[in-house]
Amino acid sequence: MSRYSLTGNIRDAAFQRGADLFGVADASCFLRPDYAGNRPQDIMQGVASVVVLGVSVPRGAFSTLPKGRGEYTNTLMAGTATLRLIAFFLARQIEREGYLATLVPTEGSEFGYWYADRATLKADLSLKYAAYHAGLGSFGLNHLLVHPDYGARIRITGILTDALLEAGDPGTIPFLHPRCRECGKCVEVCPVHAIGRDGTIDRERCADYMFRELRGLRCGMCIKVCPL
């Protein structure tokens, strides 16, 4: 099967099973000098493609914040569970074609807190970076992916595979969303001042707030106020 046919087949299967976003990044984008995170090449030998999957999060989950953090967190976890099932199905579909595939932890685990190095709070790879190179959106000041239709109200996960799939291209999509330069609402609303107007973010401060003060519940305020 050609890479175009396989890509189309898994794209169709992803949408049929409930995904709202689908894209493919060429794994070589992680070798660019502007990328400072962990790389999929250190996880899977011969990795060629990173499949990015996403679901939109219902707006109602944000409307009750900050009081409804339990409801918000539960909704996010439901999105995560949905993505895992979709990704698992697609990984098996890819392997039936003779390739290898493995699932990446869902983006939104807050800097890979459950999976990654506790000192750096960096995940095994940045799915948001893969999503950008797949042409799915730009980054926001809050370091979240901003999708054209759903804004930052999404959950994403990924699949690493040695299958050479048809990759997307960011083309003229800016790395930082243009409206973020003049907005700054996420900077102002952050309860621990973890987001900087210069594009920096204090991972430790953000994670500490959620996992210590909120005892594992998610914050979500920077997404709630985002006008995109």
Question: What characteristics describe this protein?
Answer:
four-stranded antiparallel β-sheet, globular, 6 strands, two-stranded antiparallel sheet, 7 helices
Mean pLDDT, to the nearest integer, reads 91
Radius of gyration (Å): 17 Å
Number of domains: 1
User: Which descriptor suits the 3D outline?
Assistant: globular
The number of E-state strands comes to 6
Q: What would you call the structural class?
A: alpha+beta
Please state roughly what percent of the residues sit in beta strands, choosing from under 5%, 5-15%, 15-25%, 25-35%, 35-45% or over 45%: 5-15%
- Unreliable spans are none
Instruction: Please list the strands of the largest sheet in the order they lie side by side.
Output: 1-2-6-3
List the helices and strands in order.
HEEHHEHEEEHHH
Largest sheet: 4 strands, antiparallel
Task: Give me the number of helical elements.
Answer: 7
Residues in helices, as a percent range? 25-40%
Distance between the termini: 39 Å
Description:
Helix 1 (3-16) runs antiparallel to helix 3 (69-96). The strands form two sheets. Strands 1-2-6-3 form a four-stranded antiparallel sheet, with helices on both faces. The chain contains seven helices and six strands. Strand 4 and strand 5 (145-146) form a beta hairpin. Helices cover 32% and strands 14% of the residues. The protein is an alpha+beta fold and 228 residues long. The radius of gyration is 17 Å and the shape is globular. The longest helix is centred in the middle third of the chain and has 28 residues, at 69-96.
